Amino acid sequence: MKASLIPLVAAGLLASTAARAELKVGDHAPDFTAEAAVGGKEFTFSLADALNKGPVVLYFYPKSFTPGCTAEAHDFAEAADTFASAGASLIGVSADNIGTQKEFSAKECRNKFPVAADPDMKVIRAYDAVMVSLPGMTGVADRTSYVISPDGKVLYAYTALSPDKHVENTLAVVREWRKAHP
Description:
This protein has helices spanning 6-16, 47-51, 67-85, 98-107, 122-126, 166-180, and strands at residues 33-38, 41-46, 56-60, 89-94, 115-117, 144-148, 154-159. Helix 3 packs parallel to helix 6. By secondary structure, it is of the alpha/beta class. The chain has one domain (6-180): Glutaredoxin, CATH 3.40.30. Strand 1 and strand 2 (41-46) form a beta hairpin.
């Protein structure tokens, strides 16, 4: 983002997420490892290892195979090559178990990026991404997206129940980061 746009985006972000508790820009992103799957194959995802390769787009979502989460996974899958060309890694996280994530990674993430299982919600809590706003949706993540720089700092945080702007917003931040770090 151009320096002149950052205050405007920040103001809009604050206005749209005033009741949210996500980590703030500049905060240190908590390191984690988690069981994850890509293309239906299980592996251990390490944030530290991913950050060694470039920025990471870490997005939390409520529940695999629900309409909004499926739409968001499709959007991230369509943009996965663009994120990769900008040097960024993608990882989705929900409270679903690894069996569900294996299936979701193959079907809805279209084998393009991994999703991690966080059934005990340790990672979700560490990133202040626990959903508190919807009745009947306890024990799930809120829809929160982060861009984390290779030095482990939060570059961007966005919480909105609608999946519509998560890919667009995080990709814009990754592209601006790339321009500043060729």
